[in-house]
Design brief:
The chain is 42% helix and 14% strand. With 306 residues, it is of the alpha/beta class. It has 2 domains: 129 residues, Aspartate/ornithine carbamoyltransferase (Rossmann fold, 3-Layer(aba) Sandwich); 157 residues, Aspartate/ornithine carbamoyltransferase (Rossmann fold).
Length: 306
């Protein structure tokens, strides 16, 4: 059985704690892992633009002793002249691991089902597991625990980050409260899975930002303008989502030591105010750095080493 990382479905608290432990060890002593993937090749496939995912995976593979081939799917016949199934089978003959950042989660599943090597989800329209595993690493570093914490998410909740936050928080015992307008709720199947996974923790979705922020330990938001949003849709989205902007007033409703998180990229004056993201409670760049360390742990896991 190969170790794909397609979403957080099927992950347990023990498995996530294990990945976090490996990432923490790598962060403390990266040289101890410098040759763990010697001779291995990662094929990175990008349909969507990327900064953190591309840099962190390429650096992670290099610093583990392997190397990366990165391709833009637009420069290949994948999904057009050649089926995704055939692409997966061919790529598996060349590479040891495939990381794909794709628009359609269904296409990623198809890629994984036909690849004989591990496939890692670098982001799809439904899930972003690498980001949330990295976020959980950051939360563990900053708070020292998961159980009993409250994470409040604000804005567009029908996206890959919110979906994985729901699953990740439920698995790890973090109370998660999502505040979003009607029409921007998480997908029903994901919400139901999160509720089923939660054991003693809360999974709440509502339309009141103040209620969600109250006594929160972590305030989290994400871009209102995902890559698939059309230009003509932006004014309506701004109007709908502005009441859910994270401001200093909203931060004051949270616990005194609350942290602000955004997986980036961020637009000041949109999903959060500049004073929040650039303020003392913001840990967004620690969050971004931890993508590298967790990416290494995920690569080792995919190869059965971690």
């Amino acid at each position: 059985m190969k170790n794909d990382v397609l979403s957080l479905e099927g992950f347990t608290m023990e498995k996530i704690e294990g990945l976090i432990g490996v990432a923490q060890d790598i962060k403390k002593d990266p040289k101890a892992y410098a040759w763990d993937l010697e001779g291995k090749t990662l094929l990175s496939i990008f349909e969507k633009p990327s900064l953190r995912t591309r840099i962190s995976f390429e650096l992670a593979m290099k610093q583990l002793g392997g190397h990366t081939i990165t391709i833009d799917s637009q420069s290949t016949p994948m999904g057009k002249k050649e089926s995704i199934e055939d692409t997966a089978k061919v790529a598996s003959r060349y590479a040891d691991i495939i990381m794909a950042r794709m628009y359609s989660h269904a296409d990623l599943i198809k890629l994984a089902q036909n690849a004989s090597v591990p496939v890692i989800n670098g982001l799809t329209n439904k899930f972003h597991p690498c980001q949330i595993l990295s976020d959980l690493l950051t939360i563990k570093e900053k708070k020292g625990k998961f159980e009993g914490l409250k994470l409040a998410y604000f804005g567009d909740a029908d996206n890959n980050v919110t979906h994985c936050l729901l699953l990740g928080c439920a698995i790890m015992g973090i109370n998660i409260h999502v505040a979003c307008p009607k029409g921007y709720w998480p997908q029903v199947d994901v919400l139901q899975k999160a509720i089923a996974l939660a054991s003693g923790s809360e999974v709440v979705v509502g339309e009141c930002p103040e209620n969600a922020a109250r006594k929160a330990d972590i305030i989290y938001t994400d871009s209102w303008m995902s890559y698939h949003i059309k230009e003509e849709e932006k004014p309506r989205r701004i109007r709908d989502l502005m009441p859910f902007q994270v401001t200093s007033r909203l931060m004051k409703a949270a616990n005194k030591g609350a942290m602000f998180m955004n997986c980036l990229p961020a637009q000041r004056g949109m999903e959060q105010s500049a004073e929040v993201i650039d303020g003392p409670q913001s840990i967004v760049f620690d969050q971004a750095e931890n993508r590298l360390h967790m990416q290494k742990a995920i690569l080792l896991y995919s190869e059965g080493i971690a």
